[in-house]
Design goal:
Strand content: 25-35%
Distance between the termini: 28 Å
CATH class of the largest domain: Alpha Beta
Bound molecules: adenosine-5'-triphosphate
Structural class: alpha+beta
CATH architecture of the largest domain: 2-Layer Sandwich
Shape: elongated
Radius of gyration: 26 Å
Largest sheet: 9 strands, mixed
């Protein structure tokens, strides 16, 4: 009999041709349903990693106990189900306590973990863990396993994923049901429906077994939301996840700290009016507070964000965030969000008296007076060009261009006791 509690980490079991690591985790969670210590974890790792298949997701399941025989059962199930075509490195890690690896877990979300770092961490956790690889020597999937097991929770959302019984048929999409469900449950659920184009967002389109996924703040509301849809399925599971938390974004002061394959948020000044490429993408030249120059690109596919970026002007002070491209010559950010902090001032001077039109006299830092008419003004005369862009509002991509980790601006986190059994029964 093994020590308690036991964590099972699984990653990199799906390929472009099929499979899904969440399906394997769902099956195992039902197999050991009475021993779950929490909902299974679905952790989204660094979205800029080039070797990801789709959403760079890794899974972890916490159980109160697991016998040696059951360890073998889990290993043979995962290895038999994992897809091994293409560049996958299917991996399974079983861990019995030991030192927490939270820095590793955070780095896997925000940066790139090297082979050396993986090896060092495996040495540390070696005595309290055991791993299994489908392709001998191909250990990269263990990065996701360690990261998912050791994830430190500062914010969490949930996703109810339902699976199709037969993958040979098209997913039936109940557009009106999804719109109805969204109207009743948002913002406790989110990313259900793209109202700009009238399209449901809960159905994937790949060859994987997922029928639909409903994301939100409260597992019980997710279960109720599932009941509102016409789809039927025999397998579904609620995952606790870091989706919708912006956990991948690192705030930096300048381009010097914007490393390739990371996602940064940076305050910068726009130094030229936006350029629109023939494909409709918006390119903006910016400088950070130290005068280092870079670019922000807002792709046409980001819809609303792209439209707002077109309205920026030379001289605007903005905050932009997004993935840093691996180019070496200059720093280019693939924009995921934008805030206009201060618009360019077109006209800024000492105010004139509205009666005699003479320039006023400055009395102190913020006060001006007309000595003839005794009229006072409480600041300089400043004018901005009025544009359809609101200062300090967070602008994000349109719903269909939203990525897993991006935090919807309208999120209203709700903290509820995690009553797994009441949700799953
Ligand atoms: P999903 O399950 O959402 O489809 P995915 O298929 O896109 O996820 P994976 O199949 O898990 O992604 O492949 C990503 C690979 O990259 C895994 O082997 C994972 O361990 C590794 N990886 C993830 N994050 C990092 C990181 N920050 N540094 C290095 N390797 C990473």
């Amino acid at each position: 009999m093994c020590e308690l509690p036991v964590w099972i980490g699984i990653d990199d079991t799906d390929s472009y041709y099929g499979g899904c690591t969440t399906w394997i985790a769902a099956k195992l969670s039902y197999r050991f349903k009475d021993r779950l210590v929490d909902f299974p974890y679905l952790i989204r790792l660094n979205p800029e990693i080039p070797w990801k298949t789709r959403g760079n997701g890794a899974l972890a399941i916490g159980l109160s106990s697991l016998t040696d025989k059951e360890v073998e059962e889990v290993a043979s199930f995962v290895m038999a189900t994992a897809r091994d075509e293409g560049k996958t490195n299917p991996s399974l890690l079983i861990s019995w306590g030991g030192e927490r690896q939270e820095r590793f877990a955070i780095k896997a979300i925000r940066d790139v973990i090297t082979k050396r770092e993986l090896e060092r961490t495996l040495e540390k956790i070696g005595p309290t863990s055991k791993y299994f690889l489908k392709k001998p020597g191909k250990m990269r999937g263990l990065i996701g396993c360690i990261a998912a097991i050791n994830h430190p929770w500062s914010d969490a959302t949930y996703e109810l994923i339902a699976y199709r019984d037969d993958q040979n048929y098209e997913r039936p999409e109940f557009r009106d049901d999804v719109l109805w469900m969204d109207s009743l449950t948002a913002p406790v659920t989110f990313a259900n429906f793209d109202r700009e184009v009238g399209k449901p967002l809960i159905y994937p389109h790949g060859p994987d077994p997922v029928l639909f996924g409903i994301r939100g703040e409260d597992p019980r509301v997710l279960k109720a939301a599932m009941m509102m849809l016409g789809n039927s399925c025999s397998l579904w599971m609620v995952f606790k996840t870091n989706q919708g938390t912006d956990e991948h974004v690192v705030g930096v002061n300048g381009f010097g700290l914007a490393y390739p394959y990371t996602t940064v948020s940076i305050e910068a000044r726009v130094v030229s009016n936006p350029t629109i490429t023939p494909g409709g993408h918006v390119v903006i030249d910016i400088i950070d507070r130290d005068g280092n120059s870079g670019q922000a690109v807002f792709y046409r596919q980001t819809g609303n964000l792209n439209r707002v970026a077109r309205r920026l002007m030379k001289g605007d002070l903005v905050r932009v965030w997004g993935g840093v491209r691996p180019e070496t010559q200059r720093k280019v950010i693939n924009g995921q969000g934008l805030v206009l902090i201060a618009p360019k001032i077109l006209y800024d001077e000492v105010p004139s008296c509205p009666f005699c039109h003479r320039k006023m006299r400055q009395v102190n830092a913020g006060r001006y007076i007309c000595d003839t008419c005794k009229v006072q003004a409480m600041g300089r005369a400043r004018f901005y060009l009025k544009r359809d862009i609101i200062v300090n509002r967070i602008y994000q991509p349109s719903a269909s261009a939203f990525k897993h980790l991006m935090k919807p601006a309208g999120r209203r986190p709700i903290r509820t006791p995690q009553e797994i059994k009441s949700v799953l029964s």
